[in-house]
Specification:
382 residues, binds fe (ii) ion, 20% helix, binds FE2/S2 (inorganic) cluster
Length: 382
């Protein structure tokens, strides 16, 4: 395998632990467990909120929601990306309600307190009349943000308002096991050509478990299985918060409707026969699918025990966009079809798991990665 000289890949069945079973029903339906996940996982981990290419210039912002908290993610005057709670320091009002946009300051719609892009309170009408009032005491509450491979991650545990600072580890430390692993895909430089938002009536963990195995591929994804053999999976990350490996792409093909490459390669793969698609899950809300000619990223936003919003972006080389051979829809249409096939079986799983008849079932040897994902999830929760 030509990916990295030192990486060791194993067939999925080689890392299987025979007694592994699926999670019990409560993990998929209980509002209490959902609340516990929001507190113990989403409020403490580095959570994907976007990509730096979405904030091109100073003043560009996007809103993100983590564990029910609305956050403003903005590129400041010094071109640094910063995060703030979307809460006015006067009477708490939500400051921004557009999903994204551009503004040179952050102004509250209620009484017009105005904050700089660095979060400092710049103007507060008539507050000079209040003895002892000092604008310096009323900056926006910051949130820890950091970049990994061009992707923006936020961590509520790192902020001054956090109740759980003891759990905080830096983004560098968290992603240390992946250092340099994806450099050849040029992730920081890529641009998204399209985003689809899917509203899926299934628990967020079912999305991860489904992503992590191709036991279902032959029956659920006939088109995908023709281009990428369903039993070709080999994994190099088989335990912990980052899991996955590669599958083969049948020669001269790409994962597109036409079967042909749809854009300039995203990276320099050095080798004309680079026919691999890499699939990695990044705990707790990112699925990273690296193709030779594009990178697909799913960002999961759990809404309730039985509902998950999924933002899916297709990223391409920045120079691909101007070329005649750029056919992003060929990849987008293909994965939109495969995504919907997946969401359908995830929704059916949610329905069956909600039945009184459901009891945990045995994982097959082809499902060692979902079993490992479950173990990692339980480590965080308990
Ligand atoms: S609540 Fe924001 S200015 Fe009053
Ligand atoms: Fe699938």
């Amino acid at each position: 395998m030509a990916t990295t000289a030192t990486a060791l890949f194993h067939k999925t069945a080689e890392t299987f632990r025979p007694s592994a079973k699926t999670l019990s029903q409560q993990y998929f339906v209980s509002p209490e467990i959902f609340a516990e996940e929001q507190e113990k996982i989403f409020s403490r981990q580095w959570v994907l909120v976007g990509h730096q290419s979405q904030l091109k210039k100073s003043g560009d912002f996007l809103l993100a929601t983590i564990a029910g908290e609305s956050l403003i993610v903005v590129r400041d005057q010094k071109s640094e990306i910063r995060g703030f709670y979307n809460v006015c320091r006067h009477r708490g009002t939500r400051l921004k309600d557009d999903a994204c946009g551009h503004s040179s300051t952050i102004q509250c719609p209620y009484h017009a307190w105005t904050y700089g892009l660095d979060g400092r309170l710049l103007g507060a009408p008539h507050m000079d009349d209040v003895p002892g009032f000092d604008k310096a005491d009323y900056s926006l509450h910051p949130v820890s943000l950091a970049l990994w491979e061009g992707f923006i991650f936020a961590n509520l545990a790192g902020a001054s308002t956090s109740r759980s600072n003891r759990d905080y580890i830096s983004l560098e430390e968290w992603f240390a096991p992946l250092a340099g692993k994806f450099s050849r895909w040029n992730l920081p430089a890529l641009h998204s050509a399209k985003r689809f938002d899917y509203d899926v009536y299934a628990n967020w963990k079912l999305i991860f478990e489904n992503y992590s195995e191709c036991y279902h591929c032959l029956g659920v994804h006939p088109e995908l299985s023709k281009i990428s053999p369903h039993d070709s999976a080999e994994n190099d990350l088989t335990e912990g918060p980052f899991l996955g490996g590669f599958m083969r792409i049948a020669s001269d093909k790409s994962l597109t409707m036409s079967g042909h490459t749809c854009a300039l390669p995203v990276g320099d793969f050095g080798d004309k026969d680079f026919r691999f698609v890499f699939y990695y899950s990044i705990f707790p809300n990112m699925l990273l699918s690296l193709h030779p000619d594009y990178v697909m990223v799913h960002q999961l936003l759990p809404q309730s025990p039985e509902r998950t919003l999924i933002l899916c972006n297709w990223f391409f080389h920045p120079e691909a966009f101007e070329r005649e051979d750029f056919k992003p829809e060929d990849a987008i249409e293909f994965w939109d079809m495969v995504n919907k096939q997946d969401w359908h079986v995830c929704e059916l799983s949610q329905q069956g798991i909600s039945s009184r008849a459901y009891v945990p079932g045995p994982y097959s040897a082809r499902e060692s990665i979902p079993a490992a994902w479950d173990r990692e999830y339980l480590r965080h929760l308990r």
